[in-house]
Design goal:
With about 260 residues, the chain is an alpha/beta fold. The chain folds into two domains: about 180 residues, 3-Layer(aba) Sandwich (Rossmann fold); about 60 residues, Helicase, Ruva Protein, domain 3, CATH 1.10.8. Helices cover about 40% and strands about 20% of the residues. The strands form two sheets. Strands 4-3-2-5-6-9-7 form a seven-stranded mixed β-sheet. Strands 1-8 form a two-stranded antiparallel sheet. Helix 2 links the parallel strand 2 and strand 3. The protein starts with 9 loop residues before the first strand and ends with a helix.
Length: about 260
Amino acid sequence: MTKKSLGQNFLSDKNILSKIVESGQISKEDIILEIGPGTGNLTNKILDQAPKHLIIIEKDKELINILKKKFGKNVEIINQDILECYDNFKYNTPIKVFGNLPYNISTKILISYIKIKELKKRFNKFIFIFQKEVADRILAKDNSKNYGRLSILSSWKMTPQKVMDINPKFFSPKPKVWSSLITLTPNIKFEQLKKEKSLEHITNIFFNQRRKMIRKPMKQLFDNYEEIATKLNIDLNIRPQNLSTKKYLEICKFYEKLI
């Protein structure tokens, strides 16, 4: 029995489960973390690839009992909320993370990972299923309607790529919306900031009023906003979606000088 409060929608289609596993390119040396395994359909497929170690995190205690009976000691099973333990897994090798993410906390999970320091050193790849609308926002480029804070945060430290869209009919219970499978690979090089939270703060200010010209958020952030705009070659009459991730990072650098 699925629980709506936990955003549970289980996948059982073997072809799609195989596609998910293929996207992770699992080797026998890999350490795998799976978020929200449900009844273990994807877990089974991952185990078929014989990774070095598999950890599964499930918040639902009833499902934990099912998973223990099903997998025994073949996997490490943790009964916890992923948002409380996402940063607890530290190994000598970067790990791969799979997840059919609950719609209600999927962006929180992603942003939590983005803000981790030494992301590339800790994580090899994320293979996540999101609500399609959220995936479109992650993948969006500047000057498009879906471009926003999630696009900027994701492209700052990762390279996101869509694998496929998934019809609601393949889930149980059947959601009202389509989903998308995407991979996110941590970048070797990215713009270093003093605080991982700075870019999140800046983009929140800009995109809280995405239809307004950027003059207002710039004025909110800086007393000498016109001078900074000139230095960065930014037109104050454009809208937030017209600024590239690079420009937001440049704004962030100026902001961090003030804090």
